[in-house]
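Can't attach files on this board, so I'm pasting raw text. These are the components:
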Amino acid sequence: MNARVLFPFSAIVGQEEMKRALLIAAVDATLGGVLVFGDRGTGKSTAVRALAALLPPMRVVVGCPYSCSPDAPAGLCEQCSQPGAKAKTALVPVPVVDLPLGATEDRVVGALDIERALAQGVKAFEPGLLARAHRGFLYIDEVNLLEDHIVDLLLDVAASGENVVEREGLSIRHPARFVLVGSGNPEEGELRPQLLDRFGLSVEVTTPSDIATRIEVVRRRDAFERDQAGFAVSWAAEEAKLRRRLVAARKRLPEIVVPDESIGHAARLCIALGTDGLRGELTLIRAARALAAYDGEREVGLAQLRAVAPAALRHRLRRNPLDDTVATTRVERAIAEVLAA
Amino acid sequence: MSEAARAWDDALLAAQLLAIDPAGLKGLVLRARPGPVLDRWLGFLRRVLPEGMPLRKLPPGIGDSRLLGGIDLAATLKSGRPVGARGLLAEADGGLVLVPMAERLAPGLAARLGAALDRGEVVAEREGMTIRAPARVGLVLLDEGATEDEAPPPELAERIGLAARLEGIPLADTAMAETGRDAILRARTALAKVSVDARTLEALCATAAAFGIGSLRAPLLALAAARASAALAGRPAVEEADAIAATRLVLAPRATCMPSPPEPETPPEQDTPPPPEQTENRSEEGETSDALSDVLLAAAAAAVPKDLLAALAQRGLSRGAASTGKEGAARLSALRGAPLAARPGMPGGGKRLALLETLRAAAPWQGMRRRQGGPRIAVRREDFHIRRYRERSETTTIFAVDASGSSALNRMAEAKGAVELLLADCYVRRDRVALIAFRGRQAELLLPPTTSLVRAKRSLAALPGGGGTPVASALDGARALAEAVLRRGGTPVVVLFTDGRANVARDGTGGREAAERDALAAARVLASLRIASVLLDTSPRPQKQGETLAAAMGARYLPLPYADAAAVSRAVKAMAPAHTARAA
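---
Top answer:
Structure tokens for the assembled complex are below.
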């Protein structure tokens, strides 16, 4: 697993909206995750994995199961909770944790450490997937096929940034801040509407239909399959450039100004679309801010709002479940009306 | 060469290519009923597989711990620490896994197999362990479906490279190819060096697009097949013959439309709406599609199943509906029982022991118990836990909608409106819905049971009206579907929209008297199966026929003029049972 070469993010052809949404989520990890819905064979999981590989490695306390940052220890594991102890740190790649279908709840939230319990009779907590995903990505393929009770649990943790375990006599809470990325194919079943708007951004992907793009996709993928290392080297410069841009955007994010005018625009857009609650506006503003940081702007303007509005709002429209006018069209229409320059 | 002999040759070639590059091709979807022809093919496959290459059979209903790997309980108890056991997919690494009855594959299992194909490894989080093992396998899906509607789950079939059919091949046509293991071994070593020129790559992409194949996995898999074919023939580069073989085995079976020669009038239709720049693409397509593309198109056209044309013609009429057929049939129960927390209790009486929970409960006490002089692992009665599941009995609402001339005249629009309201209800309850329309000579299943309301809506919108009223055929169809739902442990509810004026008998002939007799007979069968049903009378003035039919069905009778949306919804809701909890 460690030697596996990943398809470079910058080598992904097309799928601009998906790539942008993932990049925005990487700039501001608190956005609430990305839902990618669409056709099969469009490189959804490739993009997520590639993105994590693109991110600069993070510093963690060695041996900490929660990948604690040395600056902000969760204080749960033995290493980080020793007061005054100088913890050894190391740089590790940003984790992408897959949530396989059929994962049991105890693996997701963590459970009693059966090994230590059997061998030493100690009641110790064995962290689950949520702990492993801390500071990284949690990727769920076919999120619409995942059992509902697991999805509920994940969204709850993703929203609160904290995993609370109350089972088998254990009572533990630990930080679990991760970017949740769900993907699925709507033809295979729909996601409960209550879950939809818990995702920060949602994008729709389709297979490219023009021949030239399709040939390019196949050519690159084939080149990659034939010589993974060589392919990665030939894209290394592009990857480095993108990485620098991403790092710069993260650093700049807190300084981005959101003018009152932009907040007004966002509010008007949400009113025109009749989105429920304030989550839509908040996400829209934050996504636009992350994009501004990525674009190298100082403040959020109309361009950013327009660019992220479909992804931030299309899954929040109060919809008649049977009205299949594409939500995207409705958002675009509203953008054209409300955000006319 | 006869059609059957050609199909057999394709199947043999597929077996050889699989032996050369199982993981690159990801496997084969073989449509074949069990029988001597299939046995001969399997015998050939075993003969060409290199020595030591695994060929494992996936037992139906395999559990996750056996498929992906899990905890080895015997070893775990013995050693006092968790010990993992490899699963079937990891054991088959580098080889093939046979999947019998692939058309009945459960969606969850299909998803796990698909994930293994994508990653070339299995990753499982189970029972307190993370299991990760290489599993570069090809799957041989044996599709034993009786009808075209039964097919392996599309999300899995889409990832698998080759497809072949053994249906309709007489045993006399199954001559064995000469190829032996040596040729395969030579090809396996040569495979890495086979080159592909840009022209072939472009032609394969163009051919895939011309046949309306949306997924980009298809041309990539075709490329892998072409390489394997060239390696088999001992060629250093992919040539036309290899590209043709790849087209026949990989692209043609995925065709969703026929290219319209010579200049495509309409762009290849895809499941996604074509973007506006379609015109521009065609000119580009013209540039890349050279003579080779034409050859491939012809090869593919020859290999596309003949009935596709008929199916496509039908699809043209009701596009939304037909695009769904297989998917719906393949997706069985997406909702399984959600496991509840295990609780202390004695196993027996249908309650299964929750072994891990029991061990967990026993674990903290081991030190103490050992001191008292017990065995290495002392599990006591009070540690026992039992498994519990919350089982959701899924409701499938079967709508049978009368689209005949008389109905269409009367209140087709209102009926559609009422169905939509009910669909919205089903959506809220996450029920599954199926849609049968009947008009003309017989009833037609427009939408097999699905939770996708968008598709239900689409099928309904595309519903044409006119023709006779084959009530008997509709009731028969609804009954067959309801029985299928019952067999799977679901609860069917039949909602029949009709004016009750049957005028087409079971055999498709007209005549009011025979038609009504048949309709009543079909209705009584439905009643005898105790299938909950509602009849919504759509005639302008409620007539005797509707009520008589409802009585024969044992159905609730609601004349539509008086039944407002809320009443209809209440009536159907009353039929649908709520969730049930049980210990299993």
